[in-house]
Amino acid sequence: MREWQRFVQSFGYAIAGLVYTVKTQRNMQIHVAAALAVLVLGWWLAIPKRDVLLVFFCIFLVLAFETMNTAVERCVDLTVGDRRHPLARIAKDTAAGAVLLTAILAVIVGLSVFTEPLWYWLTTGQRTYNMK
Ligand SMILES: Nc1ncnc2c1ncn2[C@@H]1O[C@H](COP(=O)(O)OP(=O)(O)OP(=O)(O)O)[C@@H](O)[C@H]1O
Predict the structure, then answer these.
(1) Residues that bind substrate, according to the entry (predicted)?
(2) Which CATH code, of 3.40.50.360, 3.30.70.120, 3.20.20.150, 1.10.287.3610, is assigned to 3-124?
(3) Which of 24, 47, 72, 89 is most buried (most C-beta within 10 Å)?
(4) CB–CB of 27/68 below 8 Å?
């Protein structure tokens, strides 16, 4: 197989991993729905470009960590099967903790980006709020 074909194939594997995560993980479905809602709100409120980039950064960070969390869960399941083990619990809980940290960051960024434009829209009825 040629180098470029291997490269394209590796993209296919990566997409399959993402599809698996979205299909099987309820939290991932919630993250995706929240991300779409936030992007629509950002477009509707015409938030500045640098804030859009910040929002995109947080969205991709959370989705990436959730995907990695799924990988950890599956590795643990593969290793211990149906057995309960304190290390399995720690591995899953710490991976979930990492996702939680990124979600907290996303909420902080979301609040700092959206509070003023939303308040402006609620108090003036106009959506063209733009920070310097
Ligand atoms: N093999 C295990 N040994 C000990 N504790 C476990 C084990 N598997 C899971 N746990 C504990 O139960 C929690 C929930 O795990 P569970 O397997 O139900 O769901 P999950 O792995 O988070 O996700 P999924 O439902 O996608 O498999 C984990 O965060 C961990 O605290």
Answers:
(1) 6, 66
(2) 1.10.287.3610
(3) 47
(4) no
Q: For residue range 24-73, what is the model confidence (pLDDT) as tens digits?
A: 999 999 999 999 999 999 999 999 999 999 999 999 999 999 999 999 99
pTM for the whole structure: 0.92
Query: Which residues approach ligand 1 with their CB closer than 6 A?
Result: 25, 73, 80, 84-85, 88-89, 92-93, 96
107/38 Cα distance (integer angstroms): 11
Residue type, 102: T
* Res. 107: pLDDT tops 80: yes
Active site members: 66
Q: How far apart are CA 45 and CA 121, in angstroms?
A: 8
The reply, when asked if residue 66 is annotated as ligand binding, is: yes
Name the residue of 27, 70, 89, 94 to mutate for ligand 1: max ligand atoms within 8 A of Cβ.
89
